[in-house]
Specification:
Oligomer: heterodimer
Shape of chain A: globular
Number of domains of chain A: 1
Helix content of chain A: 10-25%
Distance between the termini of chain A: 52 Å
Shape of chain B: globular
Structural class of chain B: alpha+beta
Largest sheet of chain B: 14 strands, antiparallel
Radius of gyration of chain B: 19 Å
Number of helices of chain A: 5
CATH superfamily of chain A: q2cbj1_9rhob like domain
Radius of gyration of chain A: 17 Å
CATH class of chain A: Mainly Beta
Order of helices and strands of chain B: HHHEHEEEHHEEEEEEEEEE
Distance between the termini of chain B: 44 Å
Number of strands of chain A: 12
Chain lengths: 245, 277
Amino acid sequence: MTILDYDYLRTAMAERAEDYQNADPFPHIAVDNFLPTSVVDRIHPLFPAPRVRAGQEDRSQDMSDGAPAQFRKRWISREQAVDVAIRRIYWELNSGPFIQILEQMSGIDNLLPDPFLMGGGIHQTEPRGFLRMHADFNRHPKLKLDRRLNLLIYFNRDWPQEYGGHLELWSQDMGRCVKEIAPTAGRCVIFSTTSRSWHGHPRPLACPEGDTRKSLALYYYTHGRPAHESDGEHATLWQKLPGEA
Amino acid sequence: MGFLSSLFKAKGEAREPPACAYDSLDAPVMLDFARLGEEAVQLAREYQQASPFPHIMLDGFLAPGHVKSILQEFPGPGEELEWRRVDLVSSAGDLVQDRKLGFGDVNRLGPALRELLWELNSGTFLRILENLTGIEGLIADPKLQGGGIHQVLPGGMLAVHADFTRHSLYDLDRRLNVLVYLNEDWNDDWGGELELWSEDMQRCERRIRPLAGRCVIFNTSQTSFHGHPRPLACPEGRTRKSIALYYYTQGRADADVEPTDLTSWRNVPDVNLPVAE
């Protein structure tokens, strides 16, 4: 009675370690039907309606020139604030059997979950919202662990291409977008995080008012990381798109 | 295999499972997080000042109905699981761990046990532990190394010891033990009390019976001596059942604790024991 289908995930993830580790522009994978449609349908209505009024945007992470880093994006990390069905998904994604599959796929041993879900949990972005390209904070300030993997699950049913909100993965030099992944319901994207794993959905969402781009995010850590990835502790690093003022 | 996909496969085609298949997603949680959250704040001082080392005993941690559900699926010693069983003799030649079985692969346990183990590693419970113990930045062990479900067979024992202080896989510092007991109708004379001993191993300060629904939480250091060192007197067919979770931090402020991945065993002196609770 697990939520995840481990036979399927071993095939779709653990046995695709080479694809994951050699992916361009950095190790990543998109797994369709990661959650069955019935679970997506169960979780979708549990996303609370965002209550964001004009002037209440989180400007705490604005770029140095005052440009917003993220716009009309809200998230809930606190486990107790969400329905138990969502909590059970967190718990299973943070438990040993799933983490073992992540380790086999990524080649990263001894991954640790963050049950406090710092920066993670459920995310949603309203129409016209965006999340600028960025590389994630690389160290958990509370747990004192190194951030290694992001796992994103999308819950966007009936989401035509024109709505946008694709996850973009850019080259290390931020010269070009190498991959665009539509945030399709049931799809999971996992990628390795370093100080140059540039990702975001930087173009304003074109979905209609009343709809939002919905996702769930969990991050995984290790104690220590390879020397060639060690760039000193930093908060989120934001990037404008090439040519953007 | 996931429960939803197994339903699909049984029918040979994809179709929506009946509504009751969501029971596991929607079932109420097992632990009373709201009550435990309040108790953690109220009991923090008692916990942190407890002798011989910071600890607390919480009765009714697990409601009797949940204990029953868990016992129904608690695997017997003869079941075909890869039970860890290591009968240990210390370097001094003493038998220190005898007839103790452990198992930690959550996906091979039943839904009630899995649920409890998940809840005990959840962010909500970690916050409760932080408030109770005053230890910040607790890290759960998804692999449940050394933990999970435990049962000790008749005649078995676990000598008094201080736990390893360093997690060998993650290189983290071990800080807390959480033990939940599952023994219904446990006779006084069957023994198996958890004993807490003073740092100098001269006094047993507390004897806690392993009664169903009871939880014991304590700090681990190189001098947090504990065990159930006297052979169990329960009849054949009964075992002493518990759940054990260990929690870690990356680094620790009490720098006098030496990092070791060895368990430190002790003999108990022949002294008077406190009354068992």
